[in-house]
Amino acid sequence: MLLEIENLSGGYGGEDVVKGITCRADAGEVLCLVGPNGCGKTTLFRLILGFLTVSGGSVRIGGVRAETLRPGELAKRIAYIPQYHTPVFSYTALEVVMMGRASHFSALQSPGRTDREAAFTALEKLNAVHLANQKYTALSGGQRQMVMIARAVCQEARILIMDEPGASLDYANQQLLLNMVTELAGDGYCVVMSTHSPEHPAAVAGKVLLMRGGRTAAFGRAEEVIVPELLEKVYGIEMDVLTLRDRYGVQRTICLPVKKKG
Fold first, then answer.
1. How far apart are the first and last CA of the chain?
2. Burial of 257 (0-12, 13-18, 19+ CB in 10 A)
3. 206-249 pLDDT, tens digit each
4. Distance CA 250, CA 225 (A)
5. Which of 145, 137, 155, 161 has the alpha carbon at shortest distance from 86?
6. How far are the Cα atoms of 15, 77, 91, 94 from residue 168, in angstroms, in the given order?
7. SS (H, E, C) the chain
8. Stretch 142-167: mean pLDDT
9. What pTM was estimated for this model as a whole?
10. What confidence score (pLDDT) does residue 118 get?
11. CA–CA dist 131, 75 (Å, integer)
12. Is residue 61 a contact partner of residue 74, using CB atoms and an 8 Å limit?
């Protein structure tokens, strides 16, 4: 199992925001964190990545407790794709992707031919080679997100942590992103992503950790968790979950807040 979270607790200033979370995900799987603002999704990510101190429970990466790994070792196992990223300097997209190789050489070394080739390979996987020589600061939100995912792929970590990757994207780019997440899982990556949309887990055929108040409201397959009674409990509004097929016969899931007549 690539990622195992057992009874995990932690937070800020001695106060736990995440309280007793247990879940797991393996190679080829997508784990979606779903829940309202303030439910602890970002805090959980920071605990997994070692940015915050764990007050209870454990995080295991490939069977090894995360706190026993040095930063360079952890970076070779797990990569983080932030929601927003704006560099201070006007790097090219290729240079941003090559930054993912930092854990593969010392502070006194510079990226070499192997690192450059790895960056191009990562951009190819994301169908973004055409962006290589463009200034990262001039790219659209969707293009930047693809470059950041390419940087994580270039890092050669098998676990990809994505913090609300579709938050700043338009509708079309959100769909492209979900397709890319599915492809990455198909290539053997373990993808952990937070989202405000309860429809996304079904779109990527993933597992769901449904959170409320820093705790687990439910954990399981999308079809088990994305159901009206659980969504209503978490979001506090009445919701319907509809399953239908699109024009190509692909099954889709739609979540609708209920609107009462009159």
1. 51
2. exposed
3. 999 999 999 999 999 999 999 999 999 999 999 999 999 999 99
4. 20
5. 137
6. 30, 27, 21, 22
7. CCEEEEEEEEEECCEEEEEEEEEEECCCCEEEEECCCCCCHHHHHHHHCCCCCEEEEEEEECCEEHHHCCHHHHHCCEEEECCCCCCCCCCEHHHHHHHHHHHHCCCCCCCCHHHHHHHHHHHHHCCCHHHCCCEHHHCCHHHHHHHHHHHHHHCCCCEEEECCCCCCCCHHHHHHHHHHHHHHHHCCCEEEEEECCCCHHHHCCCEEEEEECCEEEEEEEHHHHCCHHHHHHHHCCCEEEEEEECCCCCEEEEEEECCCCC
8. 92
9. 0.92
10. 92
11. 25
12. yes
Which residues have CB under 8 Å from 183's CB, separation 6+? none
Q: Single out the residue of 40, 120, 31, 111 nearest to residue 78, CA to CA.
A: 31
